[in-house]
Specification:
By secondary structure, this protein is an alpha/beta fold. The protein has one domain: Alpha/beta knot (3-Layer(aba) Sandwich). The protein is 23% helix and 24% strand. It has five helices and nine strands; from the N terminus they run βαβββαβαβαβββα. The chain has a six-stranded parallel beta sheet, covered by helices on one side. α1 packs parallel to α4. The chain is globular. The structure holds S-adenosylmethionine.
Length: 188
């Protein structure tokens, strides 16, 4: 892999949910190809996963950049994806309905070409998973997805995650660590 994946952290803190998603990304992208930018906390655990900088990608003035933005007009395809050196993904937790934070906080503020991977919202780690499939030659139209995921907390309670999930062997992609975290947080 000779392209770089840049996660621009845009949450006010490095919440556990963010860290779990970033760990999940590090299982997809080699350490040398993964940057975490706009990380204000010192000594973050992210150093094990990739290059970490306090600087925002917005101030880096990089060339050949593709910003992954659900609100972009055009969809990224495998052929075009080979032309870019950098891919920027928002380290933004999902919100429903989406507030167009990627457009407001990234696309409108930096130089680069914005592309969508469909209009539905993936988590940050699943956006990286789908991007990787596209870079490796699979167009979005050949992938399978599921809308929403229901997680059972216990016999009575469950929660719906209102996002779009790529299917791997028919199963929605979500890290087991995130499922444990959600269950622990919601149970009492
Ligand atoms: C959980 S999403 C946050 C989306 C945010 N609610 C918004 O409306 O912009 C985290 C990141 O994954 C990427 N992403 C998620 N779904 C995408 C899609 N359908 N197309 C392109 N990028 C996507 C974007 O880079 C986005 O900043």
């Amino acid at each position: 892999m000779n392209q770089l994946i840049i996660i621009e952290h845009l949450e006010p803190k490095l919440w556990p949910w963010c860290t779990i998603e970033y760990e999940s990304i590090s299982k997809l992208i080699p350490k040398d190809n993964l940057w975490f930018t706009n990380i204000k906390e010192n000594g973050s655990k992210l150093g094990k996963l990739g290059k970490v900088t306090k600087e925002s990608v917005i101030d880096m003035n990089l060339e050949d950049v593709c910003i992954l933005d659900p609100d972009a007009k055009l969809t990224l395809n495998p052929e075009e994806s080979r032309k870019f050196k950098y891919f920027v993904i928002g380290g933004i937790l999902g919100d429903y309905p989406p507030k167009k934070r990627t457009k407001v906080e990234l696309t409108n503020k930096m130089k680069g070409v914005a592309r969508n991977m469909g209009k539905k919202q993936f988590s940050t780690d699943n956006a990286v998973y789908v991007l990787k499939q596209i870079i490796n030659g699979t167009p979005l139209s050949k992938m399978k997805f599921q809308n929403k995921l229901n997680i059972k907390i216990n016999k009575i309670e469950s929660i719906d995650l209102p996002y779009y999930y790529p299917l791997i062997n028919g199963k929605p992609r979500i890290s087991s660590k995130l499922i444990s975290y959600i269950k622990k947080k919601k149970s009492f």
